[in-house]
Amino acid sequence: MSAEPEEGHAIEVHLDRLLADRGMTLTELANRVGVTNVNLSILKNGRAKAIRFTTLTRICEVLECQPGDLLSHRPKD
Predict the structure, then answer these.
(1) Can you spell out the DSSP letters for the chain?
(2) Per-domain residue ranges of the chain
């Protein structure tokens, strides 16, 4: 039995930059958004397969940003 390769994506997450710009830790953001550190870490490291709009909304509210500040599309080569 062979495992199917995971389908890649071309979305980059800029959470590190936004947190640094605001002097905020991942733990503080997680507490203010209402999600776990683990879930935010998965998003921050680009390993998330999806994000709920409610979570995206809260992240944008807390960081005072737009979704486009957090996510960008990297064209495939």
Answers:
(1) --PPPPPP--EEE-HHHHHHHHT--HHHHHHHHTS-HHHHHHHHTT--S---HHHHHHHHHHHT--HHHHEEE----
(2) 11-66
